[in-house]
């Protein structure tokens, strides 16, 4: 028996070792990775922005699904055909966004709900360039193909009616059949999302956004069941999620796709001014500047936004009362007014636009009243047609009354005549006058959003209302929010500050008075210093004026001296200045220095001057003198003796090579003169140079007349012999 027990224990141990290890409670489960194909094929056209927004919607919804299912997923972006092939090959688990009507003849599974969206557009064959959505004549008589889907058909029919097209619709059982019909020419247009395109189609127009589905094969039945359960979970337990996604992505995508039909465009081009009447002023909803007569506020700013969007001119006017505003509509003195639609039988034949905005109205009650008590007497300010009926239907147990002024409404509640008043939130933000009614309190947690639209008179053109609706589709909501915020900014006044910050304002005023008193004392003290400084500044000014006068005289003297000594054409010293300067230099030259005096005469200058005119001659002289300044040593004195004759004086310490140095300079001048360029063309002049050298220690080297005669003699020899050369007359 003991042996049997031992054997039993051994067998039990082996069985336990063979069993797989149990999972620790702290270890997370290993979830599968789902491979999802997203058809991201985009077509040219304005719908691209809408497609990007819908892609963001689909991505956000998928992340919420993964949060519930604990999926780890990988996204594959490709064409529709590529994604389907990968799904069939088992390389993808899900494909989106698709429409089940496109796969009626295939055995696929599709998701429920609105977990993804796509853009429904109209496409023509790639070689068909004649169809243009802006010209009904190119579409009328066409046949449009679509999938056998009631959702697609109803949306497409609405779009066709809105554009006033006359077309025929033909349904097809699958996306392949629809594409084949387009290529064969059975249909001229097809209504499709990008998923059903082959890549050869031409985008014509967008239609709208449309809910789509996820697709998978029967092999993934369990996966599709998990997906549908997650979608149902979101819809049942987190309904605000879809609402937020629609507001953030779907609505802007529709704004991106808004366009005017051909009929609307024609109306805009010839539309008369649309007069909008307001039943009185109500800041900040509508106000009037009595000095300039302009009307401004939230409503007029919205009309300006509509005018910029449509090109239709909206003109605001203010009536004295409701009755006056309604009379203006009846007598055709106005075409529209802002209103709250409440299905009033009296307004049955009026035309109403889509809601422009939802204006928040905040309740104000007596401070002693309960926040949760249902009011039995409600008073409202007179601002919009239909507002009283709107609140009456929200509060059927209460009696709703209107008063002309919001301040009267606050006073009536404060006096106990009414239980509650609803005031526009922009009014409360701008005026802050509730703070002065200490017996009242604002219930911001129970704000009611009131839909505002434009009400057009019954006989107004229907196209006007439709055009405004199209413009409203394209109005960015952030601009409407900016209009409300800008007009809701409080008017900063003493009463407003006192009501908002009584203690801070009192302390601030004391500080300001202290600062003012200190400033006055310091100003009085500084006044004496300023007077002393004024006297000193006056004396400094007199001295400065005297110095300025001396400086001006010196400048005038220098300018006069420069003009008197300089040749006005070449900038060289003139004959008198050169003579005086050379004589002064020779008189002061040291004994061990030598002097070389050059006389240069331009050959063929007279021919150029006579042939091409005096301007050509002046240009040659200017370029020649500029060349001399460029090539000669800085200590060279250059003068123009008149006509085409120039003189040079060079003095330097005598090192025994003054003749060679003078020859080198003369040859340099000759060479540069031969290549002289004047105004982009050759100057065609040469130079004849006579040089007189007075070496150190010579007796008459300080006599300018003697040196000049020798140089002139050397120049004469050159001119008589060969020109374009130089001679040195040595003492």
TrEMBL record:
<feature type="domain" description="GGDEF">
    <location>
        <begin position="593"/>
        <end position="731"/>
    </location>
</feature>
<dbReference type="Pfam" id="PF00990">
    <property type="entry name" value="GGDEF"/>
</dbReference>
<feature type="coiled-coil region">
    <location>
        <begin position="525"/>
        <end position="563"/>
    </location>
</feature>
<dbReference type="InterPro" id="IPR050469">
    <property type="entry name" value="Diguanylate_Cyclase"/>
</dbReference>
<keyword id="KW-0812">Transmembrane</keyword>
<dbReference type="InterPro" id="IPR000160">
    <property type="entry name" value="GGDEF_dom"/>
</dbReference>
<protein>
    <submittedName>
        <fullName>Diguanylate cyclase</fullName>
    </submittedName>
</protein>
<feature type="transmembrane region" description="Helical">
    <location>
        <begin position="503"/>
        <end position="524"/>
    </location>
</feature>
<dbReference type="InterPro" id="IPR043128">
    <property type="entry name" value="Rev_trsase/Diguanyl_cyclase"/>
</dbReference>
<keyword id="KW-0175">Coiled coil</keyword>
<feature type="signal peptide">
    <location>
        <begin position="1"/>
        <end position="26"/>
    </location>
</feature>
<dbReference type="InterPro" id="IPR029787">
    <property type="entry name" value="Nucleotide_cyclase"/>
</dbReference>
<keyword id="KW-0732">Signal</keyword>
<dbReference type="GO" id="GO:0052621">
    <property type="term" value="F:diguanylate cyclase activity"/>
</dbReference>
<keyword id="KW-1133">Transmembrane helix</keyword>
<keyword id="KW-0472">Membrane</keyword>
